[in-house]
Amino acid sequence: MHPAVSVILFTTLSGAGFGLFAWLGTGRPPVTGWPAFWFYFMGYGLAVTGLFASAFHLANPKNAIKAFSQWRSSWLSREAVLSVATLLVIAPYAIGRIFYGENWAALGLAGSILSILTVFSTAMIYTQLRTVPRWNTPLTPLLFLAYAVTGGAILAGQSEAAIWLLLALGLIQLAHWMLGDSRFAAAGHDMGTATGLGRIGRVRLLEPPHSGGNYLLHEMVFRIGRRHAMKLRVLAFLGAVALPLAILLAFGAAPAATALAAAVHLLGTLASRWLFFAEARHVVGLYYGR
Amino acid sequence: MTDLPRSTERKLGLVIDLDTCVGCHACVISCKGWNTVSADNAPLSDFDAYGPDPQGTFLNRVHSYEVTPEEGGAAQVVHFPRSCLHCEDAPCVTVCPTGASFKRAEDGIVLVNEDDCMGCGLCAWACPYGARELDLAAGVMKKCTLCIDRIYNENLPEEDRVPACVRSCPAGARHFGDLGDPDSAVSRLVAERGGMELMPECGTRPVNRYLPPRPRDRAVKGSLENAAEDSARPSGFLGWLDRALEAL
């Protein structure tokens, strides 16, 4: 799949933002006043920037408002509804924290739960696609949730929890990569089933339908990422898991260490998310012999 | 809501005969022509049409494949038109966040309401068959409408009330009808010829069917190899000539 910058930024930044809200909503860290302001400022900055980035992915954004209408059937619509609901529920909780030094716990908890549901529905947009076997697994929502909650823990300065979460994230990320490698073949798709000609014999593309590119090839038959996949996996793992873990273990909850760990983790997450798209193989490529 | 109808009164669709298709691309061109000039929808755009990197939106594309029998023997070429299969369990419809994608309860045709489409492209990702292409000029998703503006159009002569691709096929390889009616001509064709679903493992339950190529005569055992290199020694006059030429 084509790793569009807008979608990578959307899933990474909004994931981190909602992950941070999931922690803040439970009263962790227990800040009020100016420190609370900066935490919520960061959360809204990440979440809203991510959501705006997703709008750049649209070819006809004037109809974006209609994306709130189909929540009964569409995960993308649910994601839109839940993300706005989260931002609206967290806002009064943040106001209580910042201006009144109050902890309206029920409101905060509702915000936390909505944050988790938002990330889950983001993941389900990809998980639901049977056309991309690498994504079509329960490990995908687990991976997105692990990234969000871990990134949120680092940003919220919850170093002890972050260390355990980084270990869990590392395992889930490795599992998603390794099990993902065999998903396409295991789903049973090949040129024989795509064309129905497999019952006659071995199928090979003799002549493509067009000599130039088209939307399908650009969007769904992206192949560049697969060449450097191993190197990128190492870099993504170092950035998202290994380095932040080392920093937190060495320096604990020192603010500078937290900031550095968060920055490195987000860079690693971007690399992992790039791979998430670039490595994913869509069945339509079979019609083009790829 | 972009829920799917539980069932449809009719299941209009195409039956494409892979035995008959000659790969002329007439269906591709007539489809593009009709859907660019006729409807209320935006035209199917082209970019750099006469330049070095031509690209455009098409609702129908013809691939050509070579199929080689596993047990050996001669390969054959199969021309393969690919377009929307108007699936009963269409994943492109349920993923749509705006309600632009829908499947009609009366005839099963899957359509896009361009006034609602925001061009997110998720329906194209959800389709296993590459049936949907985002038009880069209009910014909305394009797909086969089964020529809804022809098949019910009483201003057209009756023989023209079929999809443009069916009307233009010079080989008669494309058939249009109600696949929900077991007595329709298309349903009988499917039953007689073993019409097949594409990628049934995707669970989309496509309405369109493809008729597989009829079995070819197998190459007589050894005949192709002999034609390539005659290793057996002839006898009689030819044998004498063979030996004489070798002795020269």
Helix content of chain A: 55-70%
- Strand portion of chain A: under 5%
Q: What radius of gyration of chain B results from the CA coordinates?
A: 24 Å
Quote the average pLDDT of chain A. Answer: 96
Global morphology of chain B: elongated
| CATH class category label of chain A | Mainly Alpha
Count of helical regions of chain A: 12
**CATH homology-level superfamily of chain A:** Formate dehydrogenase/DMSO reductase domain
Helix and strand sequence of chain A: HHHHHHHHEHHHH
- Specify the helix fraction band of chain B: 10-25%
Q: In total, how many domains does the architecture of chain A comprise? A: 1
How large is the count of helical segments of chain B?
A: 8
CATH topology of chain A: Formate dehydrogenase/DMSO reductase fold
Compute the CA-based radius of gyration of chain A. 21 Å
Characteristics:
heterodimer, A: 290 residues, mainly alpha, Formate dehydrogenase/DMSO reductase fold, B: 248 residues, alpha+beta, Alpha-Beta Plaits, 11 strands, 18% strand, elongated, metal-binding (chain B), 4Fe4S_Fe-S-bd (chain B)
Quick summary:
Chain A is 68% helix and 2% strand. Chain A is mainly alpha-helical and 290 residues long. Chain A has a single domain (5-288), classed as Formate dehydrogenase/DMSO reductase domain (Formate dehydrogenase/DMSO reductase fold, Up-down Bundle).
Secondary-structure blueprint:
The complex is a heterodimer of chains A (290) and B (248).
Chain A: H1 5-24, H2 33-55, H3 75-100, H4 105-127, H5 139-155, H6 159-180, H7 183-186, H8 191-195, E1 202-207, H9 215-220, H10 224-227, H11 229-251, H12 255-278
Chain B: E1 12-17, H1 26-37, E2 46-47, E3 55-56, E4 60-68, E5 76-83, H2 91-94, E6 101-103, E7 110-112, H3 122-126, E8 133-134, E9 141-142, H4 148-151, H5 164-168, E10 174-178, H6 185-193, E11 209-211, H7 223-228, H8 236-247
InterPro entries (chain A): DmsC
Keywords (chain A): Membrane, Transmembrane, Transmembrane helix
GO molecular function (chain A): dimethyl sulfoxide reductase activity
